[in-house]
Design brief:
Layout lengths: L2 H34 L5 H5 L12 H32 L4 H14 L3 H15 L6 H25 L3 H9 L4 H29 L3 H4 L32 H11 L5 H36 L1
Helix pairs in contact: 1-11, 3-6, 3-8, 4-6, 5-6, 6-8, 7-8, 8-11, 10-11
C-alpha cells in the first residue's frame, strides 16, 4: 500500500474511534437527561428533600452545592494564583522546584476518596470542625488546588518572553510586569481553568461524604447571620450536596419516589456541569477576542 492510502486508512480509523467515543458520551448524557428532565420542576428545584414521603426536592442540596463551591474557590483561587505565579516567574530551576512540581502532579492524580479520608482525619477530627461546609471546602481545596496551580503556571508560561522584556524596558519592576503585562495576557487561560475546576468540584461526591456530611438540616433563609446555627451561611453546619444526595438516594433511599428524585437530581447535576464547561469556553474565547482586539 502507498503512504497516501495508509494515511487515509489511519485517518479513518481515528475518526471512527472519535465518533464511537462521542456517540457513547452523547448516549449516556441523553439517557440521563431523558430519564431525569420530566421530573425537574420549580417545586423540585426549590423544595427540601423528604426522607419517608414522596414529592421531595433538592432545594437545600442545590444551595449547599453552590455555597460550598463558592467557599472552596474563595480559598483555593488566591493560593493557586500565588503558587502558579511563583513557579512560573520566580522559582529557580533546581531540585527543590522539581520536587514541588512532582508533588503537584502526584496530588492532582489522587483519587477523591483519598482526599476525603485525609479531610476527615485532619479537618473533621484533628481540627474539630466536624462534618461541616468548612471541612468540605478545605477538602475540595486540597482536591482542586494542584490542578488550578498547574493551570495558572501553564497559562503564564505561554506568554511570550518578549512581552516581559517590553515591560521591563518601559521601566516596570518584575512584579509590575507580571501584574500589568503577563497576567492580563494569560487571563483567558486562567479564567477557563478556574471555571473548569469549579465544574469539577461541583460534581464531587466522594471527598464530601467524609467531610461535609450526609445530612441536610432545614435552613432558615430569612436568617443570613453566619453565626446562627440554622443560617444558610453558617460554615460549621453539615451540608449534603447534590452529588452526595444522588449517591445516598441510590444506596439507601427509602422514599417512594426515590428513582424519580435520583433521575431528576442527576439531570440537574449534568446540566450544571455542562453549563460550567460551556461558560469556560465562551468566557475564555470572548475575553481573548476582547484583549486581542484592544
Amino acid at each position: 500500500m502507498s503512504a497516501k492510502a495508509i494515511d487515509k486508512m489511519m485517518t479513518g480509523v481515528l475518526y471512527l474511534i472519535a465518533g464511537i467515543i462521542v456517540l457513547l458520551l452523547a448516549g449516556l448524557l441523553g439517557y440521563i437527561l431523558v430519564q431525569g428532565l420530566p421530573h425537574v420542576s420549580w417545586h423540585f428545584l426549590t423544595s427540601p428533600a423528604k426522607s419517608f414521603e414522596a414529592g421531595g426536592g433538592i432545594g437545600i442540596q442545590l444551595f449547599n452545592s453552590f455555597y460550598l463551591l463558592l467557599l472552596s474557590m474563595v480559598i483555593s483561587v488566591p493560593l493557586a494564583l500565588g503558587a502558579g505565579i511563583y513557579l512560573a516567574e520566580y522559582a529557580k530551576k533546581n531540585w527543590l522546584t522539581d520536587v514541588v512540581r512532582t508533588a503537584i502532579e502526584i496530588l492532582s492524580s489522587l483519587p477523591s476518596v483519598v482526599v476525603g479520608l485525609f479531610g476527615f482525619l485532619v479537618f473533621v477530627l484533628q481540627f474539630k470542625f466536624g462534618f461541616s461546609i468548612l471541612s468540605g471546602a478545605l477538602a475540595l481545596t486540597m482536591f482542586n488546588l494542584p490542578l488550578l496551580t498547574r493551570n495558572v503556571e501553564d497559562s503564564l508560561r505561554q506568554v511570550g518572553f518578549t512581552q516581559r522584556e517590553a515591560g521591563l524596558a518601559l521601566g516596570l519592576s518584575r512584579w509590575e510586569t507580571v501584574v500589568h503585562v503577563v497576567i492580563p495576557e494569560a487571563l483567558p487561560g486562567i479564567l477557563t481553568g478556574m471555571i473548569l475546576g469549579a465544574g469539577r468540584v461541583f460534581g464531587e461526591a466522594a471527598a464530601l461524604i467524609y467531610t461535609a456530611g450526609q445530612s441536610a438540616p432545614a435552613l432558615n433563609f430569612a436568617d443570613w447571620n453566619p453565626l446562627h446555627i440554622a443560617s444558610p451561611l453558617n460554615p460549621f453546619r453539615p451540608a449534603e450536596t447534590l452529588a452526595v444526595h444522588i449517591w445516598k438516594i441510590n444506596s439507601e433511599g427509602i422514599q417512594p419516589d426515590a428513582a424519580a428524585v435520583s433521575a431528576g437530581a442527576s439531570a440537574v447535576l449534568i446540566l450544571a456541569v455542562l453549563a460550567f464547561n460551556l461558560l469556560a469556553r465562551w468566557g475564555g474565547n470572548r475575553l481573548y477576542k476582547r484583549m486581542t482586539a484592544g
